[in-house]
Amino acid sequence: TRIDDYTNMRAAVVGGKGERVHFYRKKYEHRPLTHCYALFAFAKMEMELERDGGMSMACAEAFEHAKTLIDDPGSKVPWTIKVFGLMVFERFLATLQGRAEFFDVKPVKVTGKKRQRALEEYLQSQMRILTNCIDGIELDSLTFKSKPGADEEWEQTIEFPTFRGADVANYGLSCLSLLGQEQEHRELMAETVTTSIMKCMHKCHEEPMVIAHGLRALYNMCYRCNAGQVSILLAPYKGLMAMLKESWSGDVEINKLTRR
């Protein structure tokens, strides 16, 4: 019997060994379905920890790999694989170790008076990995025109997210919501990501999970953070509130999140 890429990956996943899953992920990365299967396995797998409480080497490598899939300015990564990368990212950011890894400032080597500014710029670049992702979600469009010979001719084009675009927005805002749990970074987060969150919610105004995660992200950033509250109030929030009132006034959960 021939042992194929799926068989190897399946055996690694069933064994529950992150190191082996990561090994086969790298080996079969050129096969999209096997690549997605490996990412999905990491999204469901319990995080392996070292004795000092940090992430294992395999988990840290999977986390960095997911980051490279998300940080894709040229949109070269297929949207399906990007969604699975965001699932891994969300899984890790749901833990203290994952958020600590995300906000780790070891790469910043600047010292002296310029260090504080360098730290802020580095953390903002980390956050923009997610904002760039949700800013560039895949959209589709429909154009409506008046009937031929009508008294008034008109044409209207409506844009809306594709299924994968909505998935990217959903997991991207969920990741930002989880990052907002770290109080020491709320002020900088609010300055950096608030506008992108609101724009994404407008683009996906018919997607309940996107709206819910966006509201949770805004709430987490302003909770016990006056500077975060000011940043959100300075953003164009009135249009967002009007959209929520018009489209989601009958949804109990979203109304509760809005009141918070």
Give a quick precis of the structure:
The chain has helices at residues 5-15, 18-27, 32-44, 57-70, 79-93, 96-102, 115-135, 163-179, 186-203, 208-222, 226-234, 237-248, 252-259, and strands at residues 139-145, 155-161. It has 260 residues and is mainly alpha-helical. The radius of gyration is 21 Å and the shape is globular.
Descriptive notes:
A two-stranded antiparallel sheet has the order 1-2. α4 packs across α5 (79-93), α5 (79-93) packs parallel to α8 and α7 (115-135) runs parallel beside α9. The chain is 65% helix and 5% strand. By secondary structure, it is mostly helical. The chain has helices at residues 5-15, 18-27, 32-44, 57-70, 79-93, 96-102, 115-135, 163-179, 186-203, 208-222, 226-234, 237-248, 252-259; strands at residues 139-145, 155-161. The longest helix is centred in the middle third of the chain and has 21 residues, at 115-135.
Features:
globular; two-stranded antiparallel sheet; 260 residues; mainly alpha; 13 helices
Record the SSE blueprint.
Elements: H1 5-15, H2 18-27, H3 32-44, H4 57-70, H5 79-93, H6 96-102, H7 115-135, E1 139-145, E2 155-161, H8 163-179, H9 186-203, H10 208-222, H11 226-234, H12 237-248, H13 252-259
Helix pairs in contact: 1-2, 1-3, 2-3, 2-4, 3-5, 4-5, 5-6, 5-8, 7-8, 7-9, 8-9, 8-10, 9-10, 9-11, 10-13
